[in-house]
Design brief:
The chain is mainly α. Helix content is 41%, strand content 8%.
Length: 209
């Protein structure tokens, strides 16, 4: 992943209403400041290139703010998918981008049931990379997300193309099996392969400092 592709000119976050839904002039008169809409587009491009194409039977329709936790959801249980960011990110542009980066990964292979560990791990890692690149100052502080990220990173270090190559065979993370993971990445230990395919909801949640 080229870090330059996920670095954004954010301007003064205190002066961007609705967490970056409005664009303002920048040093380049032809290029206004990034908004959540344009950042979503860029991050989705990077995610598809590095981790495989999204399921085009679903259409991403944008970003909204609601509730205490970010998530993706299907309005009216349709083939449209929206990203919901937490209410407390509405006027915190940096928090909104951090949450957005995580949820972008869930646009690749949407499912209504619990995502597997590998998907949440990739999403957590992607949000951390984006946060570090843009000095957002946000990291996950929940143990199950950090455990999922650590599992993904182990796979990624073994083969940086693993996710993309496995998704060429089985595009939906939720349908991965440990046998498939080890078929594509023969050096992957069986315990890691099984953990990656475990429903994320089965990991224990513990808040960390």
């Amino acid at each position: 992943m080229d870090i330059r592709e996920i670095m954004f000119s954010l301007g003064d976050s205190q002066e961007i209403p609705s967490a970056g839904m409005a664009a303002f002039p920048s040093d380049d008169p032809l290029t206004p400041t990034w908004t959540l809409t344009t950042i979503l587009g860029r991050l989705l491009d990077v995610a598809e290139r590095d981790f495989g194409p999204r399921d085009r039977s679903f259409t991403p329709i944008g970003v909204e703010f609601h509730g205490d936790h970010p998530k993706t959801w299907f309005p009216g249980f349709s083939d449209k998918i929206a990203i919901r960011l937490s209410e407390n990110s509405r006027l915190d542009h940096r928090r909104a981008i951090f949450q957005l980066a995580h949820e972008v990964i869930h646009l690749l292979a949407p499912v209504s049931r619990s995502a597997p560990v590998v998907e949440e791990g990739l999403a957590t890692h992607f949000s951390h990379v984006v946060s570090n690149a843009n000095r957002l100052g946000y990291t996950s502080g929940v143990s199950n997300y950090l455990e999922a990220e650590a599992a993904f990173v182990r796979l990624h270090y073994m083969d940086p193309t693993a996710v993309k190559r496995i998704r060429e065979v089985e595009p939906r993370f939720a349908d991965w099996t440990s046998a498939l993971v080890r078929q594509i990445v023969p050096g992957c230990p069986i315990d890691l392969a099984e953990l990656l395919c475990l429903p994320f909801s089965e990991l224990q949640t513990v808040a960390t400092v």
